[in-house]
Amino acid sequence: MISSNDKHVLRELGKRIAEIAALPVQQETVALWKALNGLRPERPMVTIDQVPWHEMDVDGELVLRAQDPFWRAVESQLRRTLYGWTHMRVDMVVDSWIDIPMKIDGAHLGIQAVEDRAVLDPNNDVVGHYYIDQLQTEDDLEKIRMPVVTLDEEATALREAQAHEIFDGILDVRMDGIVPMFAVWDRIVEWHGVEASLLDLVDRPAFIHKMMARITDAYLAMLDQLEAQGLLGRPQSLIHCTGAYTDELPAPGYDPACPRSKDVWTAGMAQIFASVSPRMHQAFDLDYANRWYERFGLVYYGCCEPLHAKLDIVRKIPNLRKISMSPWVDVEKGAERIGRDFVFSRKPSPAFLAVDAFDGDAVAADLAETLQACARHGTPVELILKDISTVRYEPQRLWRWADIAMRLVNDAAA
Predict the structure, then answer these.
(1) Is the pLDDT of residue 414 over 80?
(2) 3-state DSSP call for residue 267?
(3) Which of 16, 92, 263, 301 is least enclosed, having the fewest CB within 10 Å?
(4) Helix (H) or strand (E) holding 34
(5) Nearest-CA neighbor of 271 among 180, 192, 184?
(6) Taking the domains of the chain in order of start, what are their residue ranges?
(7) Are 350 and 392 in contact (CB under 8 A)?
């Protein structure tokens, strides 16, 4: 049984969400996202992701009051949505439903990171990692297991029943599955270590190829099981860190009870490959990853790795629609080479929020450089502020960044 306190807390938050979701501006913003994602943008779009929430509370807006751990996590998401809408709305959309995750077991490869951590702020989940190498030999590759995906039907049914008890008459309840990304190099450095992973590209390429083949087969086996059991997620509102609204998905023949990979977006990246050549990037990432991407409806590729010099190989990714342009790219070259073919998913530097004194003029100049370069080349563009480690416990910095960004993108559309 869900407690009366938890039910009351969540219903009241749900009512506030529902009021906002009913505003006409939500569908107006959805239309703007669809235009961008369809490569016919009306203006640049803006999102904020990966916020240092431990620094953001104002007047108790983020204080949690539910007791049950699962519903406390749902409460946290609702409060963060309301906070974002109030203080740093940018181009967020508040939907009229709530996604409740199914309890799905086994969607992993059976190996976990072993690491030492360096912690500067105990309240911050952004920490330093030193990963211990667990994949030193070919025999060690046996630690990477083929997934066996199952649905915990009892736990899922309980979540669904409680969700309806809480939100019926307020928000639609959607039981949602998993849409995994293909970020296998993020996992490899956790299991094998950063230095060993890079050195083995040169010293033991056959070993890395065996590792990538095994991991790719495992990921595809997991995807097959998710599809076959109806455990794949539905068409998304967000993909990785940006709006996913599109008229192109789901694909014809879509069944909400059993989504297929071609009905949804996926995302992928190879962040550690910032320091490798395009040829190595192709051989050790994309030659494997493309087996994954060809299964999906649309693809968002990249994260923090600078991709402006690798667009010849990136643009060949099946079903590609968005390309990450990290703080380390050459903006002009990136815009010129992307042209009108894909969305330039610009990641402005979050360092502007971490300096001793916030400088709004510097933020505006940084964002304007991207907007102007994309305007010159007719390139669809979005601004995605993410990886925000700190705002120096001054949440107003992020609010100001949001105001500056929205002023600039609206000026660009004028």
Answers:
(1) no
(2) strand
(3) 16
(4) helix 24-37
(5) 184
(6) 4-413
(7) no
Mean pLDDT of 222-251: 96
3-state DSSP percent of the chain in helix, strand and coil, to 5: 45, 15, 40
Q: Span 37-55, mean pLDDT? A: 97
**What residue type is assigned to position 275 of the chain?**
S
Question: Which fold would CATH assign to domain 4-413?
Answer: TIM Barrel (3.20.20)
How sure is the predictor about 108, in pLDDT bands with cuts at 50, 70 and 90? very high
Q: Cis peptide before 122, with omega less than 30 degrees from 0?
A: no
**49 vs 114: CA distance, rounded Å:** 27
Q: What is the pLDDT of residue 383?
A: 98
Q: Give the model's confidence band at 127: pLDDT under 50 very low, under 70 low, under 90 confident, else very high.
A: confident
Distances 238 to 37, 166, 189, 193 between C-alpha atoms, Å: 12, 24, 26, 30
Q: How far is CA 249 from CA 68, 96, 286, 301, 346, in A?
A: 35, 19, 24, 18, 23
| Kind plus residue range of the DSSP H or E element containing 403 | helix 396-413
Residues with Cβ within 8 Å of 210's Cβ and at least 6 positions away in sequence, in order, are 138, 141
Query: What DSSP designation does 152 have?
Result: -
Distance CA 265, CA 33 (A): 14
- pLDDT at residue 118 is higher than 90: no
Structure confidence by residue, pLDDT tens digits, 188-217: 999 999 999 999 999 999 999 999 999 999
pLDDT of residue 409: 98
